[in-house]
Amino acid sequence: MRPFEYTRATTVADALSGIAQSESKFLGGGTNLVDLMRMGVEEPARLVDITRVPLTTVEPHGGGVRIGAMVRNSDLAEHPLIRQQYTVLSEALLAGASPQLRNMATTGGNLMQRTRCYYFYDPSYRECNKRHPGSGCAAIPGYNRIHAILGTSPQCIAVHPSDMCVALAALEAVVQVRGPRGERAIPMADFHRLPGTTPQIDTNLRQDEMITAIDLPALPFGRRSHYLKVRDRNSYAFALVSVAAALDLDSGGMIREARIAMGGVAHKPWRVPAAERLLVGRKPEESAFVAAANELVRGAQPRRHNAFKVELARR
Ligand SMILES: Cc1cc2nc3c(=O)[nH]c(=O)nc-3n(C[C@H](O)[C@H](O)[C@H](O)COP(=O)(O)OP(=O)(O)OC[C@H]3O[C@@H](n4cnc5c(N)ncnc54)[C@H](O)[C@@H]3O)c2cc1C
Ligand code: SF4
């Protein structure tokens, strides 16, 4: 591991002045970054530990809820506001990692975690456009069972691995960030990027900005939501395919509004508004769900080892 300097920030201002120095990275729970540093994939010269920055509350905000960026995943999953009003988010968090990891992982760090593509994690493979832009992609001709079927590019077919982010996409969360130019809000749909020709850039967060909070808008039917994750092992494994779904039914039992986001299929949580619209005004019955599911996977481009994901996602 490359030697690095370690500093602690206790305010957002401290954190921003720390990250302004070249080759600096924030350290949250360290559950992803430290692994990447050990593997030689990330080599920051300086870590700015932000775990003491007081952004650790979950509280009502503007009719919805504001989640501080340093809230630990386990605290968020168990928070009464989240369990009662945003069931899908609590379930998604509890489907991720292990209790020990969730006790360390922060909300901001979860948003920023990097893909689990085997070739990205192994610097002995020279070909990875995410690690070395322009070097190629070992996964396209290689073993690509866990890779994306939607929104891929000839440069990269990696998926975003987070469960939490899939629920946040369905809930239309907004990421609050602060940087040297002030504050800005990034809707979840725009936070993560598709790989395109720049797969080395995962998100639209700038290098000198810090995530401070996530806002969940009011969603009265958030309690009628569910997260379903399919994986190779029933615990302690990343999603092959997952779905966060919420349905609002009117008094006659017809669908008034629907939210569906999928994980494990793309470089970002995958949401298709046209698929959700297909459900509106329909009875919650198989034919409606089949139509929406077909729309969700429209244009899927499976690779040699992951064609099963298309049918799995549809189901
Ligand atoms: C064995 C294992 C199994 C796992 N299984 C799952 C799983 O099933 N599902 C799942 O969703 N996740 C899983 N994870 C991933 C885990 O959820 C993430 O590692 C964790 O959420 C990252 O949070 P952290 O606070 O530890 O981030 P760190 O590792 O500290 O940081 C990650 C990145 O975020 C940046 N960062 C941190 N905070 C901020 C901020 N406030 N603003 C800007 N940048 C910031 C850091 O600079 C770094 O680049 C697993 C991890 C491991 C090791
Ligand atoms: S899929 Fe992306 S992360 Fe994986 S080897 Fe190809 S370029 Fe690298």
Write structural notes for this entry.
- The chain is of the alpha+beta class and 315 residues long.
- The chain folds into 2 domains: 5-52, 2-Layer Sandwich (Uridine Diphospho-n-acetylenolpyruvylglucosamine Reductase, domain 2), CATH 3.30.43; 58-113 and 160-314, Uridine Diphospho-n-acetylenolpyruvylglucosamine Reductase, domain 3 (2-Layer Sandwich).
- It has helices spanning 12-19, 33-39, 73-78, 80-85, 87-94, 99-104, 107-112, 118-121, 164-170, 188-191, 273-277, 286-296, 308-314; strands at residues 5-8, 24-27, 46-49, 58-61, 64-68, 174-179, 182-187, 210-216, 225-230, 241-249, 255-263.
- It has a 5-stranded antiparallel β-sheet with strand order 4-5-8-6-7.
- Strand 10 (241-249) and strand 11 (255-263) form a beta hairpin.
- The longest helix is centred in the C-terminal third of the chain and has 11 residues, at 286-296.
- The radius of gyration is 19 Å and the shape is globular.
- It starts with a strand and ends with a helix.
- The model has no long low-confidence stretch (mean pLDDT 97).
- Iron/sulfur cluster binds at residues 115, 117, 119-120, 128-130, 137-139, 156-158, 199.
- Flavin-adenine dinucleotide (FAD) is lined by residues 25-33, 35, 50, 69, 96-97, 101, 104-106, 108-110, 112-113, 161-164, 210-211, 238.
